[in-house]
Amino acid sequence: MAHHRAPDSKREQFRRYLEKTGVVDSLTSVLVALYELPEKPSNSLEFVKEHLNSVGQTLAESEALQQEVIELRQRCARLVEENKELKSRLQPNEPEDKSSNDK
C-alpha cells in the first residue's frame, strides 16, 4: 500500500506545482476560449499553441507587438529597396572580370 501512496504523493505535488506556476490557469483559459468559439478551428492544436503564447499578455502589449512587427516589415522593405538601388549604382563601377583583380 505504501508503494501506491508514493505515486499519488508525487502526482499531488506535481498538480500543486502546475497550479502554483499558473499552468493550470493558462490551460483552462485557452480551453475555455476554444470551447466558446462558435466555429471550431480545423486545427485545434494550432489554436492552443497560438493562444498559449499570448496568455499573460495584455491587449496593449499584444497590439504594441503587432505594431512593431508592421513597422519592422516596412523598414525591412525600405532597406531591401535601398540595397537594390545601391547595388545598381555600384554596378557600373565594378570591373568586368573580378578574377583579374585577384592576381
UniProtKB/TrEMBL annotation:
Localization in the cell: Nucleus
Signal peptide from the UniProt entry: none
Residue segments, region Disordered: 83-103
InterPro entries, A to Z: AMY1
Primary residence: nucleus
Keywords: Nucleus
PANTHER family in UniProt: ASSOCIATE OF C-MYC AMY-1 (PTHR13168), C-MYC-BINDING PROTEIN (PTHR13168:SF0)
Similarity annotation: Belongs to the AMY1 family.
Name of the protein this chain belongs to: c-Myc-binding protein
